[in-house]
Specification:
Blueprint: E1 2-3, H1 22-27, E2 58-62, H2 67-73, E3 77-79, E4 92-97, E5 100-106, H3 121-130, E6 135-144, E7 154-155, E8 159-163, H4 187-197, E9 204-205, E10 209-213, H5 221-229, E11 234-236, H6 239-248, E12 252-261, H7 274-305, H8 316-320, H9 330-335, H10 337-340
Parallel strand pairs: 1-9, 2-5, 2-6, 6-12, 7-9, 8-10, 10-11
Antiparallel strand pairs: 3-4, 4-5, 6-11, 7-12
The structure holds zinc ion.
Length: 343
């Protein structure tokens, strides 16, 4: 089932790979895996002569509720990577799902120890780039700000309002890069998710504005009302800077939002006890997680069977680098090899 317009209410493992720098990874290439790491892609995805999805490598970043489900999605090789931005949230497992090479990462790390403000977003996206990932599918638990977006349902956000304030938001501290972000989520990946969602038994809302708050906390009632007045449909804590960093890394990125509750704008049902409410939220999250895994599996199948579309996300830096390229230091080029090699 697909919900046509969520905005209607607006207005209103396994073997371990060795660790090291990107350069050392590049030197060590040659592992028998679809995920051979290299700092310089041999064949940039957007320049492929044959634009087929078999060249697609999909990274999946699992948020709250999906960590354990990720393990069930695929078994494979576990990579403990280190990047110029530190270590990712945890090991990244590479394998194959529905005929598509995938790289799986739990956003909050083993045991869910990293809160949304502490997630190493830059390291996560950079590590995916090191592994040759071309597309990223992320999931995230959210609160609904609209009556018609019900707990347990899924939503594919098309817009974001960034209210985070203590996270690193760019890979490019040493040069001026302004990527275009009018549509922060990849239209091609979104279209695939939406198409698959039409046949889903659970409602999959086809768009909605995600408000990313810093937290880690839940909204006050005044904030919840403010976010609604701004036109936001969902509130969560992780889509930013993840979506923006994915764009800087020239990856197609889309999110499946798992609706767990109605945030706090909606008066709670009378006489519901806190414990009962919590059980209800956990139940909604489990239901939404299972539905999200099913949606992702079917989307991967569709990607594997469909001719690959060239996508402008994958050339975001062509116009995004404002600095004089001749003046970009070799040190910066070496450090950011996977991002700057083509530019
Ligand atoms: Zn794209």
């Amino acid at each position: 089932m697909i919900i046509p317009d969520a905005k209607g209410g607006r207005g209103a493992e396994s073997r371990r790979s060795q660790e090291g720098s990107p350069a050392s990874f590049a030197r060590r290439g040659g592992a028998a895996s679809p995920f051979q790491m290299a700092s310089v892609p041999k064949r940039p995805p957007h320049l492929c002569g044959e634009l087929l999805f078999r060249d697609t490598r999909v990274g999946i970043i699992g948020g709250t509720g999906l960590e354990s489900a990720l393990g069930a999605l695929a078994e494979g090789r576990s990579h403990e990577l280190s990047t110029p931005f530190g270590r990712p949230s945890g090991p990244i497992v590479t394998g194959e799902v529905e005929g598509v090479p995938v790289a799986l990462l739990a956003r909050h790390g083993p045991g869910h120890l990293l809160n949304p403000s502490q997630v190493p977003y830059r390291a996560n996206i950079f590590a995916m780039k090191m592994l040759g990932v071309t597309h990223l599918l992320a999931t995230g638990a959210v609160g609904s700000l609209r009556e018609k977006i019900r707990p347990g349902e899924l939503l594919i956000p098309d817009q974001v309002i960034d209210r985070t304030f203590r996270r690193a938001t760019t890979f490019f501290d040493d040069l001026a890069v302004h990527v275009e972000l009018a549509s922060p989520f990849c239209p091609t990946l979104r279209a695939a998710l939406i198409e698959v969602g039409k046949k889903s038994r659970v409602p999959v809302h086809r768009d909605g504005t995600y408000l990313a708050m810093e937290g880690p906390q839940f909204s006050t009632r005044a904030e919840s009302e403010l976010h609604r007045a701004w036109g936001a449909d969902l509130v969560g804590m992780t889509a930013m800077p993840e979506a923006k960093l994915a764009r800087e890394a020239e990856l197609c990125y889309a999110m499946v939002a798992l609706v767990t509750d109605y945030d706090c704008w909606r008066p709670p049902r009378a006489a519901i006890e806190q414990q009962e409410l919590l059980r209800e939220i956990i139940g909604n999250l489990e239901r939404a997680s299972a539905n999200a895994i099913a949606l992702i599996r079917k989307t991967l199948r569709k990607l594997a069977a469909t001719a690959r579309q060239p996508c402008r996300c994958q050339s975001a830096l062509t116009l995004g680098i404002w600095s004089d390229r001749e003046r970009i230091s070799q040190e910066t080029r070496d450090r950011l090899g996977p991002l700057l090699a083509r530019h």
